[in-house]
Design goal:
The complex is a heterodimer.
Chain A: E1 4-12, H1 19-27, E2 34-35, E3 48-49, H2 69-74, H3 77-93, H4 100-104, E4 106-111, H5 117-130, H6 147-156, E5 162-163, H7 171-184, E6 190-197, H8 202-210, E7 241-249, H9 250-255, E8 262-271, H10 284-297, E9 306-308, H11 317-329, E10 337-339, H12 342-345, H13 352-366, E11 368-369, E12 393-394, E13 399-406, E14 410-417
Parallel strand pairs in A: 4-5, 4-6, 9-10, 9-13
Antiparallel strand pairs in A: 1-7, 1-8, 2-3, 6-7, 8-14, 11-12, 13-14
Helix pairs in contact in A: 3-6, 7-13, 10-11
Chain B: H1 3-16, H2 37-51, H3 57-61, H4 66-76
Helix pairs in contact in B: 1-2, 1-4
Classes of the chains: A alpha/beta, B mainly alpha.
Catalytic activity (chain A): a fatty acyl-[ACP] + malonyl-[ACP] + H(+) = a 3-oxoacyl-[ACP] + holo-[ACP] + CO2; (9Z)-hexadecenoyl-[ACP] + malonyl-[ACP] + H(+) = 3-oxo-(11Z)-octadecenoyl-[ACP] + holo-[ACP] + CO2
Pfam family, one (chain A): Ketoacyl-synt_C
Enzyme class (chain A): transferase
Chain lengths: 419, 78
């Protein structure tokens, strides 16, 4: 089987719009949460989220850096974040000047959980108020989920597989796993893979609020709201942004002298077949997803040093995931560190699995496990597991596991190791 | 330059993200300013909003340059 490695990284997050800034802030235990600025959310279920900061902010995002003015006007923010993160990853991998031969064998697998919700909302209001002749001619292709892959392929001339995963909050992890398989199966040598999301808009907050999924009790101190495994957790904090990696066939990367961050060695997928929003009460889907990824990796559970958990800070999910990890890892659970970076940047939904895979890679690069913020009083079931509370922890990290679980009962796990 | 011309050029600059100097009256939206057919649909919508005129599809098809737009608006406004 052809081996697949990671040779480029790109991030747009609430704590930084490039890889090094975001990672520095994550390790420094900063929080990206704050009162929502995009609209007045005073009368909504919650009025806080983790927004990507504007360009003039210390770690803000400048859309003009990699996205044309015209495209910025036509497409939803999730596509803008995606184009930028993909550009960062290509630049990082040193692949901005590919030959035609390379570009025929280079593709995209960049998805989103929901797609262009803010634009669907605002153009629906235009339709209702002004009629069909005032709806933007760019409405459809400015909102479609596969249009990050579309835009990126056009911008960089990538003529290989053009794919977009839609599996709610598992999208980012499935995107990387699927793309790795495309390379392993010889459909491509290079794949841009990951996910993006931007749904901090009135209908997004109202919709997740009505589903009783959001944290609501921390209006005065939003940075304390995302608290995975803590007894005071009351739901997730919405984040936004994008995470995209360059995946490359190992020999191809080696031949051109590319910097190799990690190897993707295991990928597992499963369905809960239980409930649309609630996780399986025994965590069986999570367990089988991790089990499959571990089996494919050829590693022993004792080889895993760090787990970036799905850990959304919802009352049910966090402990069920930990239970599934405990069941699979047995006594080895006492030797690993497991944290949730959603405590710092919130839940990026379709972007989460990709952003968190990048944090896993950086944890291996720097030998440091990022912290779980606000873990003041862990739930009783958390005893005996290092959940990296409050502060990052220096430790040996040679192999990592990343979990993502989504509405509909869709689960994905990735195992990566140092090369 | 007429007031209509000023306002038309401002809309073109904003929508197409081109430099103001390039938006001459003879400039073709597609050949000189990098627009595609959907960009023109959007421009026509913006002209309708800005000037309170209605530009039917058959008239919109004949608007290919900045000058075509200014002339149509001046002839059909109010």
């Amino acid at each position: 089987m052809r081996r697949v490695v990671v040779t480029g990284l790109g991030l747009v997050t609430p704590l930084g719009a490039d890889v090094e800034t975001a990672w520095k802030n994550i390790v420094a235990a900063k929080s990206g949460a704050g009162t929502i600025t995009r609209f007045d959310a005073t009368d909504y279920h919650t009025n806080y989220a983790c927004e990507v900061k504007p360009a003039d902010h210390e770690y803000g995002f400048d859309p003009g850096k990699r996205v044309d003015h015209k495209i910025q006007r036509q497409v939803d923010p999730f596509i803008i974040y995606g184009i930028d993160a993909a550009g960062q990853a290509i630049e990082d991998a040193g692949l901005t000047d590919m030959t035609d031969e390379q570009r025929f064998r280079a593709g995209c697998s960049i998805g989103s959980g929901i797609g262009g919700l803010p634009g669907i909302e605002s153009e629906s209001l235009v339709l209702a108020e002004k009629g069909p002749k005032r709806v933007s001619p760019h409405f459809v292709h400015g909102r479609l989920i596969n249009l990050i892959s579309g835009q990126v392929s056009i911008k960089y001339g990538l003529m290989g597989p053009n794919h977009a995963v839609v599996t709610a909050c598992s999208t980012g992890a499935h995107s990387i796993g699927d793309a790795a398989r495309m390379i392993a199966m010889d459909d491509a040598d290079i794949m841009l893979a990951g996910g993006a999301e931007a749904t901090i808009c009135p209908i997004g907050i109202a919709g997740f609020g009505q589903a009783r999924a959001l944290s609501t009790e921390f209006r005065d101190e939003p940075w304390r709201a995302s608290r995975p495994w803590d007894q005071g957790r009351d739901g997730f904090v919405m984040g936004e942004g994008a995470g995209i990696v360059v995946l490359e066939e190992y020999e191809h990367a080696k031949a051109r002298g590319a910097k190799i961050y990690a190897e993707v060695v295991g990928y597992g997928l499963s369905g809960d077949a239980y409930h649309v929003t609630a996780p399986h009460p025994e965590g069986s889907g999570a367990f089988r997803s991790m089990q499959m990824a571990m089996k494919k990796s050829g590693l022993d559970v004792s080889d895993i040093d760090y787990i970036n958990a799905h850990g959304t800070s919802t009352p049910l999910g966090d402990e069920l995931e930990l239970g599934a990890v405990r069941k699979l890892f047995g006594n080895a659970i006492g030797d690993l560190s497991m944290s949730s970076t959603k405590s710092a940047i919130g839940h990026l939904l379709g972007g989460a699995g990709a952003v968190e895979s990048i944090f896993c890679i950086l944890a291996m690069r720097d030998q440091i496990a990022p912290p779980t913020l606000n873990l003041d009083n862990p739930s009783e079931n958390c005893a005996g597991v290092d959940l990296v509370p409050h502060k990052a922890k220096e430790r040996k990290i040679k192999a990592v596991l990343n979990n993502s679980f989504g509405f509909g009962g869709t689960n994905a796990s990735l195992v990566m190791k140092a090369v | 330059m007429s007031e209509t011309a000023d306002r038309v050029k401002k809309i073109v600059v904003e929508h197409l993200g081109v430099e103001a100097e390039k938006v001459t009256e003879d400039a073709s939206f597609i050949d000189d300013l990098g627009a595609d057919s959907l960009d023109i649909v959007e421009l026509v919508m913006a002209f309708e909003e800005e000037f309170g005129v209605e530009i039917p599809d058959d008239a919109a098809e004949k608007i290919t340059t900045v000058k075509d737009a200014i002339t149509y608006i001046d002839e059909n406004q109010g």
